[in-house]
Amino acid sequence: MEKKFGILFTVSLWCLAAVCSASGSSYLVDDSGGLGPRFDGIGGLSGGGATSRLLVSYPDPERSQILDYLFSPNFGAALHILKVEIGGDAQSTEGTEPSHMHSPDDENYQRGYEWWLMKEAKKRNPNIKLYALPWGWPGWVGNYTNSPYTDIKQTIGYVMKWLQGARTVHGLTMDYLGIWNEKSYTKDYIKLLRKTLDSSGFQNVQLVASDGKFEISYDILTDPELAAAVSILGFHYPGTYVTKYTTETRKTLWSSEDYSTKNDNVGAGCWARILNQNYVNGNMTSTISWNLIASYYGSMPFGRCGLMTAEEPWSGNYAVEGPIWVTAHTTQFTLPGWKYYLRGSGAGHLDLGGSYVSLTDGKNFTIVIETMTHNHSQCIRPSLPPYTVRAQTATFDLKGMFNSIKSLNVFYSKPGYGGNSSVYFMNKSPVQVVNGQFNLTLYPDEIYTLTTQAVGMKGKYPDPPQTKPFPTKYTDNFDEYPIYSEASYFTDQAGCFEIRNSGNISHNLVMQQVATSFPVNWCNDAHHPISVIGNHTWRDVSFSIDVHVLPSSGAILALRVDAGGCGAAGSEGIYFWLGGSGKYNVTTDMEGKSVVMNGTAPIIGNTWATVQLTVVGGEAKGSVNGVEVFDWVNIPTVLPHHGWIAIGTPDYSAAQFDNFAIHSAS
Ligand SMILES: *[C@@H]1O[C@H](CO)[C@@H](O)[C@H](O)[C@H]1NC(C)=O
Ligand SMILES: *[C@@H]1O[C@H](CO)[C@@H](O)[C@H](O)[C@H]1NC(C)=O
Ligand SMILES: *[C@@H]1O[C@H](CO)[C@@H](O)[C@H](O)[C@H]1NC(C)=O
Ligand SMILES: *[C@@H]1O[C@H](CO)[C@@H](O)[C@H](O)[C@H]1NC(C)=O
Ligand SMILES: *[C@@H]1O[C@H](CO)[C@@H](O)[C@H](O)[C@H]1NC(C)=O
Ligand SMILES: *[C@@H]1O[C@H](CO)[C@@H](O)[C@H](O)[C@H]1NC(C)=O
Ligand SMILES: *[C@@H]1O[C@H](CO)[C@@H](O)[C@H](O)[C@H]1NC(C)=O
Ligand SMILES: *[C@@H]1O[C@H](CO)[C@@H](O)[C@H](O)[C@H]1NC(C)=O
Ligand SMILES: *[C@@H]1O[C@H](CO)[C@@H](O)[C@H](O)[C@H]1NC(C)=O
Ligand SMILES: *[C@@H]1O[C@H](CO)[C@@H](O)[C@H](O)[C@H]1NC(C)=O
Fold first, then answer.
1. What range(s) does the Glycosyl hydrolase family 59 C-terminal lectin domain occupy (predicted)?
2. Which of 137, 143, 155, 192 to mutate to test the pocket of ligand 1 (most atoms within 8 A of CB)?
3. pLDDT at position 590, please?
4. Which helix (H) or strand (E) holds 229?
């Protein structure tokens, strides 16, 4: 497929380090035969789910600095696309995100942090593209059948409300909209969604389908109406390749979720390789990182799998990681709407390993080259077939528009491995171009950007505050938050907990469980709403909280909760369940199956009570209003030895919480 320009030649290099000779090849960069597809940009995904949960609780100036590293043009990652979850009250990987409609007659656009994040991104880059996608849905969507396709009109009505709320309440217009993350689609749903968008003033919202594997390609080939409804085929973790059917669709192709790798130097290598090779191998014109920023407890599944890390709002510490600068290699020197060069005349593989991708807007030229080795660029998935990279000299021959340029500005990265130090986004001396030609000696594990653009900046703020563990004494009366937001550091793992007005002047604002039914789930939701906080390494903890429960329901206090994310439903720990009927029990599992104690407790429905749970050494104790309810000595050693603090409700009904206090923790 690739046209190789000129003949392969060998050059001898001076003995540099261990490399005494390296063969060189020549690569044509030529637009005279036309350019390739439109470049649609590099993006980050907030959500899928709750991946930015801790970010919103950061103090300033750190919070604003982090946002600059992500979104400000010419500073850090300078992202072109922000993809967000349309919250569905359902567990979507690191937690739940709230729905704009907990029930059919509910509607609210002040919940969660995605609105805030989109506005902060737009403030920094008004041209950033927005892309929205649902993971789970509230149970009522689909009339409690656990499918959003039972009543597609109802489901489309729900999605349209979100788009309208975005526009009218927040002034946010989506550029792209997806179907149902990594789940099924129906052709009827996609077609009716397109028609509804067109007839409701959302003609410019392009549909991406179907944020999953390749099946949609066959349906696109065989159903012209579907093909017309879908603007972009979006695939997840394609491993840089697409299928034959996919190519035959002639559609715009994206890797609409990719990366998901720990943001160390191997993660940076993964990201550098796929950003180039998703185009070189798969003709994909956008790549979106799951996730945007690792802003959830590091002990949750997929800890640190974001472009950077901000998981300590209580200390203000954060870390700008390699993937930020790898992103900058492309984003700071291109914009959506630029064109890729065709493969074989400006993009392709390097003969001794690695790849190159050229882009232009007709006036400016940028080429990104990477030589990431196999061991240093493996992503979490799919597995990467072996290949080798060797030192090489590459000659690039510029023909066409840029034949007469005299020099190119250079940015360079070399992530360090095995104790070697890292270089990221270093501005090197320009490379001279002679008669449209320049040579570059490339070693393994390097990233180069050469560009006609005079921009490019490695943004830098003063070092953030030192890292600190979650405080072992901590209180929150929930009175300092905007209504409908979420209390700092609590991360909901089932159901949704929002700040609400208690209607009682002594309690003022409280934290309330507000999801109204088990969701149309994306992964395995727990049947009991629960929110975790604290430090997963804590073993001995004492905490208290005021609860106000319905007579027919109750509240849960728990310690040593050992699992979050899609594993939360199966978590173990010590769970103290209190019923509004005045009964209690203690279980060692989240699903409430293994009861170790039960009895009566002085809890009265619709009345506030202070509940305390303490685990110290081998003993667990619970009390209500200072009166001991249970004392469990010699708790078995098979129980988790550590985990989070949690509060919850035994079913999807309302309960209020106030005056949370961690008395001791270790
Ligand atoms: C779902 O419920 C709504 C509201 O009750 C009703 O109008 C609609 O007909 C139901 N849809 C189906 C497919 O049962
Ligand atoms: C690559 O995708 C573009 C559309 O984005 C299409 O026009 C072109 O034919 C594709 N090329 C190949 C080789 O598949
Ligand atoms: C491209 O180059 C032109 C002229 O040199 C400049 O005005 C324009 O801002 C550049 N485009 C980008 C995206 O930097
Ligand atoms: C890659 O990693 C494997 C497993 O750790 C190791 O055996 C192999 O030597 C490494 N290859 C290179 C080229 O470093
Ligand atoms: C560290 O750097 C040295 C010198 O450049 C190189 O030979 C070695 O392979 C590097 N180690 C790793 C693990 O990449
Ligand atoms: C690039 O290398 C080739 C082969 O050694 C040489 O002929 C050519 O002059 C070099 N070009 C530049 C611009 O240095
Ligand atoms: C939990 O505590 C350990 C030990 O003090 C500390 O290393 C870790 O950073 C803490 N994590 C959090 C999330 O506070
Ligand atoms: C309001 O809360 C206080 C303190 O918990 C309680 O004593 C009082 O009875 C509550 N008032 C009502 C009307 O529930
Ligand atoms: C434990 O107590 C809670 C709260 O009263 C109740 O909902 C649950 O059914 C009880 N579990 C068992 C197994 O009795
Ligand atoms: C405790 O559990 C036992 C066994 O399930 C049950 O018979 C008893 O009624 C329960 N006690 C209370 C107070 O709920």
1. 492-663
2. 143
3. 97
4. helix 224-229
Query: How many angstroms is it from 151 CA to the middle of ligand 1?
Result: 7
Atom of ligand 7 at shortest range from CA of 469? 14
The residue whose CA has the least distance to atom 9 of ligand 1 is 151
- Residue 151: CB within 6 Å of ligand 1? yes
The stretch 331-359 carries a mean pLDDT of: 98
- Specify whether 182 is catalytic: yes
| Model confidence pLDDT, tens digit, residues 474-513 | 999 999 999 999 999 999 999 999 999 999 999 999 999 9
Q: What pLDDT is recorded for position 361?
A: 98
- Ligand 5 binding pocket includes 443 (Cβ within 6 Å): no
Please tell me whether the overall predicted TM-score, pTM, comes out greater than 0.85 for this model. Answer: yes
**Pocket flag, ligand 2, residue 344 (CB < 6 Å):** no
The residues spanned by each domain of the chain are: 474-665
CA dihedral 5→10→14→18, nearest 10 degrees, is: 100
Q: Distances in Å between the alpha carbon of 63 and those of 68, 120, 124, 599? A: 9, 11, 13, 47
Options 94, 120, 257, 498, the catalytic residue: 257
- Residue 22 is predicted with a pLDDT of 52
Tokens of 106: 């509910």
Q: Are 545 and 660 in contact (CB under 8 A)?
A: yes
Name, in order, each residue with C-beta under 8 angstroms of 118's C-beta and a sequence gap of 6 or more. 82, 84, 130, 166, 170, 172
Q: CATH top-level class for 474-665?
A: mainly beta
